[in-house]
Amino acid sequence: MELGIYSFGDSGTVPTRQRLADLVAQARYADEAGLDVIALGEHHRPDFTLSAPEIVLAAISSVTDRIRLSTGVTVLSTADPVRVYQQFATLDQLSGGRAEIIAGRGAFTESFPLFGYDLRSYDLLFEEKLKLLLQIAAESPVTWQGRTRPPLENAEVTPRALQEPLPIWVGVGGTPQSAVRAGRLGAPMFVAIFTDPAPARGLVELYHRAAAGAGHDPATLRVASGGHMFVGRTSQGARDAFYPYYSEYLSLLPQFSGGMPREVYDQWIRAGLLVGSPQEVIDKIMRHRELLGISRYVGQFDVGGMPSGMIDKSLELFATEVAPVIRKETS
Q1: CA distance 8 to 256
Q2: What pLDDT was estimated at residue 107?
Q3: pLDDT surpassing 90 at residue 12
Q4: Helix residue ranges, H only, the chain
Q5: CA 99/CA 323 separation, integer angstroms
Q6: Cα gap 60→80, rounded to integer Å
Q7: What is the pLDDT of residues 227-238, one digit of tens each?
Q8: Distances in Å between the alpha carbon of 247 and those of 259, 270, 297?
Q9: pLDDT tens profile 293-313
Q10: How do residues 190-228 score in pLDDT, each as one tens digit?
Q11: Peptide bond into 165 cis (omega under 30)
Q12: Which of 101, 145, 146, 165 could crosslink 151 through cysteines, CB 3.0-4.6 Å?
C-alpha cells in the first residue's frame, strides 16, 4: 500500500518564500524516508501559497529521486486541459516518469471569477474538460469539439509524457455523481475523507458499478483516500497540540467561522479524524483500507499555519513509525 502527504501550502504568518522552501525541504525528507507520493493542491487565495503547484512540483523533482509528484487537486474547471497536459507531461519528463494529476472541482470557487468562468457552468466545465484531458493523455493527435473551449482538429499536443498514459485520477469530495463519473470514465478515484470512512463505502460501490457498466474491469481501477492528519508521540498530546491550528484552519468554513469548538473536534477524532499517536493513526488508516479497499492513503500534514518544527516532527513520525507498520501489514 502506498502512503504519502499532501499540502495546500497554508501561509500562516510565514513569508511565501520561506513557506515554499520549507515545503520543498519536507518533500525531500519524505522522499529520503521512503514515502511514496506528495500531492500539492491548488488555491487562489491569500491564505494559501500554492496557486501554481506544477511549478513547486518541478522544484521538488530536482531534489528527489523516487517520490511520485501529484496534485491534490488540479482545479480543471478553470484550466485549459491542453495546457494542463503539457505542464504535467513536461514534469513527467523532468522527473523520470513520476508525475500524476488528480483532477477535481476544488473546495472553493475563487478561480471562477479570477479566470473569467461562469459558476453556472460548474458541472459542464468539469465534465467536458475532464473528458478532453483523458483523451489527450490517451492519444495524439486529438480531434475534439465541445462547448467550453475552441475545437481541436487533428492537434498534436506535445511534449508527450514519459509515462503512457500519464496517470490522471479523479478527485471526489463526496457526491455520488462524481464517483459515477470516475467509474464511467475508467479513471482511478481519490476520495477526500475527514472523519468516518464508512459513508464512503457507498461511493466506492457506485464507482465500481459504473465502471463495470461502462465496460471497465473494476479490479484494475485504483481507489485512494486522504484527509487531515497529525501524528504526535502520544494520543492526548497530539490532540491538544493540533487543536488550535485545526480550529484556525476550519474557521475558513462558514459553520466554524468563530473557530471549531473543542467538543466537536474531539467528536471528529473519535469518528475517524487522523489525529493521535502513531498506533492510533495506523489503526485509522487500516480502517480506510478494510472498508474501502484503498491502495493509497495521503494525509494533509501541515494545516492551519503550524510551525515548521511541529510539521516536521509529525512528518517524521508518519514516515518512520506509521508507514513501516502499514506496509508490513498490507504487503
Answers
A1: 19
A2: 83
A3: no
A4: 16-32, 53-61, 81-95, 111-115, 122-138, 176-185, 200-213, 235-250, 262-271, 278-292, 308-317, 323-330
A5: 22
A6: 24
A7: 999 999 999 999
A8: 5, 16, 23
A9: 999 999 999 999 999 999 999
A10: 999 999 999 999 999 999 999 999 999 999 999 999 999
A11: yes
A12: 145
C-alpha cell at 208: 465500481
> What is the residue type of 237?
G
Phi/psi at 201 (nearest 5 deg)?
Answer: -60, -35
Query: Of the candidates 35, 39, 98, 24, which has an alpha carbon nearest to the alpha carbon of residue 74?
Result: 39
**Could you give the CA distance from residue 22 to residue 262 in angstroms, rounded to a whole number?**
29
- Cα–Cα dist 66/36, whole Å: 8
Residue 168 class from Cβ within 10 Å (0-12 exposed, 13-18 middle, 19+ buried)?
A: buried
Question: How many alpha carbons fall within 13 Å on the CB side of residue 168?
Answer: 29
SS3 content of the chain, % helix, strand, coil (to 5): 50, 15, 35
Cell 489525529 belongs to which residue? 275
Q: Which residues pair with 228 in a beta bridge?
A: 300
What three-state secondary structure class fits 163?
A: coil
SS3 158: coil
What is the separation of C-alpha 292 from the centre of its chain, rounded to a whole number of angstroms? 17
